[in-house]
Amino acid sequence: MGLFKNYVSQTRRPEGFLGKMMLKGMNSGHAKMADWGMGAVKELSPKMIAELGCGGGRNAAALLERYPEAHVDAVDYSPLSVEKAAEYNRAAVESGRCTVSQGDVQELKLCESTYDLATAFETVYFWPGLEKCFSQVAKILKPGGTFMIVNESDGTDKGSLRFERIIDGMKCYTAQDIGGALKKAGFSSVRSVHHKTKPWLIVIAVK
Fold it and tell me: What pTM did the predictor assign?
């Protein structure tokens, strides 16, 4: 149980050998869910995207491919995630289409009123105080900008709730929890999408 807990706890802030393994697993294991989530905003044509909690960088790459005219600023709390995401997106970084930096969602250093789209895949479980963090996201979005949250857990599935008990600092939220915090953070409209057969959840908010 000790090794298992140490491994799954890497989801919060990957570091060291286990963190490298976790990031590699995240890139492949969450791909279908992330792509499903991106399909929910296919009508958008963003030019500036903030990918918050970028992990191993796979989703930043998918956003760059989906929106070929866009620039992506990817941010993560973990230095190892920043390193691996930059490696994963090396060509885009070198061409100027992507930046990868360390940052904290409690105090984002990104430019205010700049982004058309902000994304958060499998990460808000670990954000310390949703309303405060969501306010930071609202700050960097342009008026009318979109914030999309994609979670593997809808806050009620037994598997994720088991991990919540194991991993320090993890909290699984329902659509209602997330939507309420988004409204308090100043977003004007919020809608949620549930997967037909899985506990996957998308929450889309407009500033």
Answer: 0.90
Residue with tokens 């700049």, as numbered in its chain: 114
* C-alpha 144 chain-centroid distance: 20
Vertex 21: Cα angle to 18 and 22 (nearest 5): 85
pLDDT digits (tens, 9 = 90+) for 133-172: 999 999 999 999 999 999 999 999 887 788 778 777 789 9
Walking along the chain (207 residues) 10 residues at a time, the average pLDDT comes out as 46 50 59 94 95 95 97 94 94 98 96 98 94 98 98 88 78 96 98 96 98
- CATH number where 176 lies: 3.40.50.150
Residue with tokens 């549930």, as numbered in its chain: 194
* Widest pairwise Cα distance in the chain: 47
Q: What 3-state class would DSSP assign to 152?
A: coil
- What local confidence, expressed as pLDDT, does residue 111 receive? 97
Rg (CA), the chain: 16
Number of domains in the chain: 1
Range of the domain at 200: 2-206
Instruction: Look over the chain and give the mean of its residue pLDDT values, rounded to a whole number.
Output: 88
- Distance separating alpha carbons of residues 89 and 56, to the nearest angstrom: 10
Residue 147 phi/psi, 5-degree rounding, is -120, 120
